[in-house]
């Protein structure tokens, strides 16, 4: 990744619908160069796709929560089954497999607190493998819309300055 690749990524993350010609003009490079750089970024797996950002409240998902979950007995098969089954639930946005005291962190949405409570009772309390879970309501969810490479190279440790 060089400065040109980083700049192209920044522009695509700001607005993935802008034309190749517009990005090339902003970067001061030829459209053919820009198109080839984008193709290589996709080929290397840096660009994994283009997505529409949607409003959760507009989809009747006004309440968000993180559900920290412990499962037992901890085994490769149980972890894979839990990840697969929970990630398919319509209320679930993300499933994170964790190290530490919790095995999973599940990001869920619901229309309101009553639906969230019913979801937890119906989908978590009746699963035999769940030892315990804790729910934290999310008041605000902010994300960094533009990510750039961090200093250092892949596979190398970052040096302190």
Automatic annotation (TrEMBL):
Q: Which GO terms describe its cellular component?
A: cytosol
Query: Which positions fall inside the HTH asnC-type domain?
Result: 1-62
- A Pfam family that this protein carries is HTH_24
Listed GO biological process terms: response to amino acid
Tagged with keyword Transcription regulation: yes
The molecular function terms in GO held by this entry are:
sequence-specific DNA binding
Keywords (A to Z) from UniProt: DNA-binding, Transcription, Transcription regulation
Could you tell me which PANTHER family the record lists for this protein? Answer: LEUCINE-RESPONSIVE REGULATORY PROTEIN, POSSIBLE TRANSCRIPTIONAL REGULATORY PROTEIN (PROBABLY LRP_ASNC-FAMILY)
- Its recorded name reads Lrp/AsnC family transcriptional regulator
């Amino acid at each position: 990744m060089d400065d040109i690749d980083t700049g192209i990524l920044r522009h695509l993350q700001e607005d993935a619908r802008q034309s190749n010609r517009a990005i090339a003009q902003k970067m001061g490079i030829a459209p053919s160069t820009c198109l080839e750089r984008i193709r290589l970024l996709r080929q290397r797996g840096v660009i994994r796709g283009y997505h529409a950002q949607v409003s959760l409240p507009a989809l009747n998902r006004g309440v968000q929560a993180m559900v920290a979950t412990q499962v037992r007995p901890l085994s490769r098969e149980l972890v894979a089954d839990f990840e697969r089954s929970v990630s398919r639930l319509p209320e679930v946005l993300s499933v994170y497999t964790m190290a530490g005291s919790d095995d999973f962190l599940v990001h869920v949405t619901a229309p309101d607190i009553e639906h969230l409570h019913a979801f937890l009772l119906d989908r978590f309390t009746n699963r035999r493998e769940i030892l315990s879970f804790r729910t934290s309501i999310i008041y605000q969810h902010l994300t960094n819309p533009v990510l750039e490479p961090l200093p250092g190279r892949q596979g190398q440790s970052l040096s302190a300055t």
